Amino acid sequence: QVQLVESGGGLVQAGDSLRLSCAASGDTFSRYTMGWFRQAPGKERDFVAYIIWNSVYTFYADSVKGRFTISRDNAKNTVYLQMNSLKPEDTAVYYCAASLFGSNLARPLAYRNWGQGTQVTVSS
Questions:
Q1: pLDDT averaged over the chain?
Q2: Do residues 68 and 35 lie in contact, with contact meaning Cβ atoms separated by under 8 Å?
Q3: For 46-59, what is each residue's pLDDT tens digit?
Q4: What's the pLDDT band for 42 if we cut at 50, 70, 90?
Q5: Which residues share a beta bridge with 22?
Q6: Cβ atoms of 2 and 98 closer than 8 Å
Q7: Half-sphere exposure of 87 toward its Cβ, with a 13 Å CA cutoff?
Q8: pLDDT above 90 covers what percent of the chain?
Q9: 18 band by pLDDT with thresholds 50, 70 and 90
Q10: Are 79 and 34 in contact (CB under 8 A)?
Q11: Using CA atoms, how far apart are residues 119 and 54, in angstroms rounded to an integer?
Q12: What is the 3 state secondary structure string of the chain?
């Protein structure tokens, strides 16, 4: 099992940037596909992006494509989410998650391990 801890959230204005980090421990980080999800109040947890173990392939939700970039550093056991051109609708709690599955990686059910989340608030 891998344990995950997110950091880097905060309150920013529309158009600003933030970089979220997710530090992993407890298992071999490079075994896992890593994903980012977000959940706004009263809404379901939505997919944001995922990156496979060797960073060769990434996939994004349409709502963040071109603005967000997911990356990972296996030597540091960390996955990142660079968020640019933030919009008020990006406001949510952001979660990182780890998966050993090879399919349906845009769905929360593919991920067994989750962090506690970090709040991102974008003001207009």
A1: 97
A2: no
A3: 999 999 999 999 99
A4: very high
A5: 6, 79
A6: yes
A7: 6
A8: 96
A9: very high
A10: yes
A11: 28
A12: CCEEEEECCEEEECCCCEEEEEEEECCCHHHCEEEEEEECCCCCEEEEEEECCCCCCEEECCCCCCCEEEEEECCCCEEEEEECCCCHHHCEEEEEEEECCCCCCCCHHHCCEECCCEEEEEEC
Residue with structure tokens 């979220």?
Answer: 20
- Give the pLDDT of residue 102: 82
Is the pLDDT at 119 greater than 90? The verdict is yes
What would the two tokens of residue 117 be?
Answer: 């989340």
From 12, 6, 39, select the one nearest 25 (Cα to Cα): 6
